[in-house]
Design goal:
533 residues; alpha+beta; Beta-Lactamase; Helix Hairpins; Heat Shock Protein 90; 5-stranded antiparallel beta sheet; 5-stranded mixed beta sheet; 12 helices; rod-shaped
């Protein structure tokens, strides 16, 4: 459950990120500004820390050098008398001279060198807070090896109020009565650390304020730019939805105002052209519909007269008889053409309504096959049905589905070269598919691209038995789309063709994967192999 919530939250964030140009722009600006401010602030902090430390170190080393010089002078003066009490008082005087040589109060330690033996001219002395562990072995070795009046230093941390403090310890050698002593001074660098902390806090607060300021400026700029772009996108969506009167507001004389004016001029031009095309389309649809209706009356009269002549054709001379037969055939074809034109005009006008009812498609296919059997017998073509089983009942307009099947079967018989035709019916829980497979001449890829065009035929010069109008497949495609389905085609020259109708089992549902391949898997039936043979 927690993982699902995390994924849902991540998906919402991802959609928000991808869907908001303003958010992306401001976020990227803030991130890049933060990186730049962090880099600059880090460089400044490092430089300030280094400069503070170096200046303080130089000051400490200089003070330590003066302190050891003064101490050496005091002991040299006391040593001229040769009296021990003078040396003891000189130790106190030297300590005072050392403290007077420095600007701050360091810890002071005067220690006899460990290598010295015998009686000490003066005893080692150190402040109570001085711990000999503060002088590390490395520093002691450096002091012993540096010679008289040479100052060595090392960083360390000392305990103090509030925890450990940074510190600096210096060490130098001086001589008392031909014996070596070491002078150590421990400086507390808390004041330097406080200064550095103040600089770093100032940099952090200043950087944070700068990032917020940059973010606010970016938001303002993006709002000024993205706002009109969003309005333009919304207006474009409304135009695409058919609200052709929508326009962009025109304010100012800048580039966005120029864009708005250009957009509005484009919208005006598109509205005029769309209106002209719509008017022309309505005129064409009305013309086709009116012409079809007007031709029905004289056509009916001609058909009745033609049938009278056709019934008496045996009494006519051979030439007149042939003319009567041609008149009868072409009158029937003309009537079929008018019916197809009227049907196409209804689809173009969006005036088609389906009469849906639960229908067993296997039985519907059987009826369609039965209807074309006379034509199939005339062409010596066997039509076979393969229905492996499934959810064959669907909500369809039976008349229109039957018309699609008769059209596909008629074309298959016309182009099947007398070879068997296989009709497949299969289904799943969501869709039903019907495929009509012939093994005739087939079509090229260019022909497949145009097979559903109106008044187009793959081979106009070829003799046809059904006398088609060139609108059958176009009407079949419209019937399939009206059901929310698809009509697909596969064909290869010399291998035949296959048309597959896929429709949802329930009206209004979407068609997913078709239950049948295109062409169908011919391994499901031996009749397909026999047909190819």
């Amino acid at each position: 459950m927690l993982r699902y919530d995390w994924r849902a939250a991540w998906e919402r964030v991802r959609r928000l990120w991808r869907g908001s140009l303003r958010l992306r722009t401001v976020a990227i600006t803030i991130v890049l500004s933060a990186i730049a401010v962090t880099a600059i602030g880090g460089y400044i902090s490092t430089s300030v820390r280094t400069n503070l430390f170096e200046s303080r170190k130089d000051q400490v080393v200089a003070e330590a050098g003066r302190a050891v010089t003064n101490a050496q002078r005091v002991f040299d003066e006391a040593g001229e008398s040769g009296q021990a009490q003078d040396l003891e008082s000189a130790l106190t005087e030297a300590t005072q001279a050392i403290r007077q040589s420095v600007s701050t109060g360091p810890l002071v330690a005067i220690l006899r060198s460990p290598a010295e033996g015998g009686p000490a001219p003066v005893e080692s002395q150190a402040d109570s807070d001085f711990d000999q562990s503060m002088a590390s072995p490395e520093l002691r070795a450096a002091v012993l090896g540096s010679g008289s009046a040479m100052v060595s230093w090392q960083s360390l941390a000392i305990s103090g109020p509030g925890g450990e403090h940074p510190a600096l310890i210096t060490g130098a050698m001086f001589n008392v009565q031909a014996q070596d002593y070491q002078l150590y001074l421990v400086y507390d660098l808390s004041d330097v650390q406080a200064t550095l902390d103040f600089v770093q806090r100032t940099l952090v607060l200043g950087g944070f304020a700068l990032i917020l300021l940059i973010g606010a400026v970016a938001y303002l700029v993006v709002r000024l730019v993205v706002g009109p772009v969003r309005v333009a996108a919304e207006t474009s969506e409304k135009l695409a939805a058919g609200q052709l009167e929508e326009r962009l507001p025109e304010r100012g004389e800048d580039e966005l105002a120029t864009l708005a004016r250009s957009f509005n001029r484009m919208a005006d031009s598109l509205q005029r052209q769309i209106k002209q095309l719509a008017d022309l389309s309505r005129v064409q649809q009305r013309f086709v519909s009116d012409v079809s209706h007007e031709l029905r009356t004289p056509l009916t009269t001609i058909r009745l007269a033609g049938e009278v002549l056709y019934d008496q054709r045996d009494d006519f001379p051979p030439a007149t008889k042939r003319t009567t037969e041609l008149l009868h055939a072409q009158t029937g074809r003309f009537e079929l053409l008018l019916s197809d034109l009227l049907e196409m005009s209804r689809y173009d006008a969006g005036a088609v309504t389906l009469e849906l009812e639960p229908t067993n498609l296997v039985r519907l296919v059987e009826d369609a096959i039965e209807a074309v059997m006379p034509l199939a017998e005339e062409k010596a073509t066997e039509v076979r049905l393969v229905a492996p089983g499934g959810y064959f009942e669907a909500e369809v307009d039976a008349r229109r589905i039957r018309r699609i099947l008769q059209n596909l079967l008629g074309n298959a018989i016309d182009h099947g070269e007398g070879r068997p035709i296989v009709v497949y019916v299969d289904s799943n829980a969501d869709a039903v598919a019907i495929a009509v497979r012939d093994y005739g001449v087939g079509m090229s890829a260019a022909d497949v691209e145009r097979v559903f065009d109106r008044f187009w035929r793959a081979d106009p010069s070829r003799q046809r038995s059904t006398g088609g109008t060139g609108l059958g497949l176009a009407i079949s495609l419209e019937d399939a789309i009206a059901h929310g389905g698809e009509l697909d085609v596969w064909s290869e020259p010399g291998r035949g063709s296959c048309f597959r109708l896929t429709i949802p089992r329930h009206s209004g549902e979407l068609v997913g994967a078709s239950p049948l391949d295109l062409p169908p898997d011919e391994g499901i039936s031996l009749v397909a192999q026999e047909a190819e043979a």
